[in-house]
Amino acid sequence: MSSRERILGRVRRALADVPRDDTPYERAVERAYLREHGGLGVEATVDLLAENLADYRAIVHRATEEELPAVIMRLLAEHGSPYVLVPPGLPPEWLSAGGPTRVDDRAESTPAELDGVASVVTGCAVAIAETGTIVLDGGPEQGRRRITLIPDHHICVVRVPDQVVASVPQALGRLDPARPLTWISGPSATSDIELDRVEGVHGPRTLEVVLVGGE
Fold it and tell me: Name one Pfam family in it (predicted).
């Protein structure tokens, strides 16, 4: 008898006296928990997102669609980035001509090559106001997960209000669990036993979030 058969046999014996229940799992387990707290309006939800992002030491900017290219180019220039990683589906109008050299997200790129790129610009899947969290799902505007983990500087564009939700349950309703989800709350950081904070350990040292709205 294999280990698998022994384990399954123990499970069967443990469940032998449990009455059969034909109630489907989704009805047997009550899920009446709150999906959001406080019922904030759109403007207040976006303000809460900006506040919580800043609490996590992300740098928050606001811009209109027309202002976005100039804002991105200014942030790249301030960081001194000679190269910028670009996901395959990044809108071309987000990056103006004459800026840093663009490096495409390619499957064959090595970690050493990616480490030589200072900045990356991406979109996002959703942003959660209550936790100040940006979620990436590897979509065309975001590229592979590794391009947002290796460069030292990440500029992430969030469309307001379409990509902003109040709570984690609302975000989960928008996300596909089969996709490679990356949850980002501020720049990469860790602390030792004495609570000395070190940033840039397993991701970008600097996270800049641009909230883009119509006004």
Answer: LUD_dom
Domains of the chain: 41-213 (3.40.50.10420)
Between CA 177 and CA 115, with CA 52 as vertex, the angle to 5 degrees is: 65
User: What CA–CA distance (Å, rounded) separates 124 from 141?
Assistant: 7
Rounded to whole angstroms, the Cα distance separating 85 from 156 reads 12
Distance in angstroms (rounded) separating the CA atoms of residues 142 and 180: 11
What are the tens digits of pLDDT across the range 150-173?
Answer: 999 999 999 999 999 999 999 999
> Of the candidates 183, 167, 178, which has an alpha carbon nearest to the alpha carbon of residue 49?
167
Q: How far are the Cα atoms of 95, 103, 113 from residue 122, in angstroms, in the given order?
A: 11, 13, 18
The type of residue at 188 is: S
Which tokens hold the place of 92?
A: 């071309």
Give the tens place of pLDDT for each residue, 109-138.
888 899 899 999 999 999 999 999 999 999
Q: How many CB atoms lie within 10 A of CB 67?
A: 14
Give CA–CA dist 6/11, Å, rounded: 9
- Alpha carbons 88 and 93: distance in angstroms, whole number: 13
Beta-carbon contacts of 9 under 8 Å, excluding residues fewer than 6 positions away, are 1
Bridge partners of 199, per DSSP, are 189
Q: State how far the Cα of 83 lies from the Cα of 153, in Å rounded to an integer.
A: 11
Nearest Cα residue to 98 out of 70, 61, 65: 70
